[in-house]
Specification:
The protein has helices at 2-27, 30-57, 63-81, 85-97. The chain is built from 4 helices and no strands. 79% of the residues lie in helices and 0% in strands. The chain has one domain. The protein has 109 residues and is mostly helical.
Length: 109
């Protein structure tokens, strides 16, 4: 059971780091991007080791739901639970620039 938990955790972390990589690339944050790249590679290597060993050598197919589930859970965490500053700024500025709509009945000539 420890192996399955490790696979799930490594897949969640991999997908969170992968999403952060896209964010750092978009924001042009090179130092954070390079450090994040190191973490992506370490987590990826560990996740592949723990998932391929039982799958290939022991024919343990129960690894697959944990691998895929961790991937889905990681994407969900990265997209919904992590702070998205650009989205907040977009909605803030959009609400400031919108003008109130005029009703056709109150239009004066």
């Amino acid at each position: 059971m420890i192996t399955y938990t490790a696979i799930l955790v490594f897949q969640v972390l991999f997908n969170v780091f992968k999403t952060m990589e896209i964010k750092y690339t978009y924001e042009n944050r090179l130092k954070d991007l390079l450090l994040n790249s190191v973490w992506i590679n370490l987590v990826s290597l560990a996740g592949m080791y723990f998932s391929l060993q039982p799958l290939l050598f022991e024919k343990d197919y129960l690894v697959l739901p944990f691998y895929i589930g961790g991937s889905v859970l990681g994407k969900w965490v990265a997209m919904t639970q992590m702070d998205n500053q650009e989205s907040k700024l977009f909605f803030f500025f959009k609400s400031k620039t919108e003008k109130p709509k005029r009703n056709a009945r109150t239009k004066t000539n």
